[in-house]
Design goal:
This protein has no helices and 9 strands. The protein is an all-beta fold. The strands form 2 sheets. Strands 3-4-6-9-7-8 form a 6-stranded mixed beta sheet, with no helix packed on it. A hairpin with a 2-residue loop joins strand 3 (about 15-20) and strand 4. About 15% of the residues are buried.
Length: about 150
């Protein structure tokens, strides 16, 4: 598939990426950025937009504490040193190149610059969604109390 796929959401249309038989929609807002007066408040729905919004690049990950890393290891750890921001409430969605005559379902996983919580398959056969934040009470990785 060579054309860029377009998805329709409640807030507006998104133009993603096509790679073979997979479509990707990256950096989809699922809440308003929790910055300024919205910091530490319940999330609000994202604002709508007009036209087609580009969904072809990852957004910043949620801030995480810097961990000590042995020299040379940073080369072998993907995402280490990636941009971080409190403006991090975005989804990344991979789907099969959708046949509009059929429906599909998907699953969710959480990611961080240091790895994935769950990765059952490399190729999404039923869809895949990732988050750029950790769903914990501290906002940090679930194992932060073990470090």
């Amino acid at each position: 598939m060579s054309s860029k796929p377009v998805a329709v959401t409640r807030q507006g249309r998104l133009r993603g990426l096509a790679a073979g038989d997979v479509h990707a929609f990256l950096g989809i807002p699922f809440a308003r950025p929790p910055v300024g007066h919205l910091r530490f408040k319940a999330p609000l729905p994202p604002e709508s937009w007009r036209g087609v919004r580009s969904a072809d690049s990852f957004r910043a990950a949620a801030p995480q504490p810097e961990l000590p890393v042995d020299p040379g290891l940073e080369i072998s750890v993907p995402g280490l040193g990636a941009p971080q921001s409190e403006d991090c409430l975005y989804l990344n969605v991979w789907t099969p190149a959708v046949d509009h005559a059929r429906s599909w379902s998907g699953y969710t996983e959480a990611t961080s610059p240091w790895g994935r919580v769950r990765r059952p398959t490399r190729r999404p056969s039923c869809g895949r969604t990732t988050l750029s934040w950790w769903p914990s009470t501290t906002g940090l990785a679930p194992w932060d109390s073990c470090i």
